DNA sequence: GCCAACGTTGGC
DNA sequence: GCCAACGTTGGC
């Protein structure tokens, strides 16, 4: 069974466009223990929302886990997963829209906005896809 | 740019 | 192991 996730990035540091341009991205620099636990649970083929924090504050696209967790040779307290862009949402889903939606009020994004790698439930996944203009979860 | 919430660090 | 001080994140 695959799981759903949400990863955050500041567009000034790493944007969706860069994510698309780079075929595969090594997701590095995560130090938060909770976020690292989530990363370790990612499986190849799992999908994640790509969220722009600070600027934009919206879900912009979907990425796929290309390689599961492995140690970061440069930082023993951290680790990496590989991801690649899958598809852009026809319309961005803003944080304001998520907060406004009763079906999404329990999203980690709302409750613990500082966590940079978060789990997303299947129901939340489907809902955000719908808001973003995708018919299905793919 | 401000500041609240959350994490981390380090002295005890 | 506690907790105060400090640093960082991210929404506003």
Number of helices: 5
Outline type: globular
CA-CA gap between termini: 15 Å
Q: Please, how many domains?
A: 1
Structure class:
alpha+beta
The quaternary state of the protein chains shown equals single chain
Mean pLDDT: 94
Task: Please state roughly what percent of the residues sit in beta strands, choosing from under 5%, 5-15%, 15-25%, 25-35%, 35-45% or over 45%.
Answer: 35-45%
Taken in chain order, the helices and strands follow as: EHEHEEEHHEH
Radius of gyration: 14 Å
- State the low-pLDDT regions, or none: none
Largest sheet descriptor: 6 strands, mixed
CATH homologous superfamily (4th level) name: ph1033 like domains
Architecture, according to CATH? Answer: Roll
Explain this structure.
- By secondary structure, this protein is of the alpha+beta class.
- It has one domain (4-131): Roll (ph1033 like fold), CATH 3.10.590.
- It has helices at residues 16-21, 33-40, 95-100, 108-111, 122-131, and strands spanning 4-9, 25-27, 47-52, 58-71, 79-94, 117-120.
- A six-stranded mixed beta sheet has the order 2-5-4-3-1-6.
- A hairpin with a 5-residue loop joins strand 3 and strand 4 (58-71).
- The longest helix has 10 residues, at 122-131.
- The two termini are 15 Å apart.
- The structure holds a DNA duplex (12 and 12 nucleotides).
Please write out the topology.
Blueprint: E1 4-9, H1 16-21, E2 25-27, H2 33-40, E3 47-52, E4 58-71, E5 79-94, H3 95-100, H4 108-111, E6 117-120, H5 122-131
Parallel strand pairs: 1-3
Antiparallel strand pairs: 1-6, 2-5, 3-4, 4-5
The protein binds a DNA duplex (12 and 12 nucleotides) through loops.
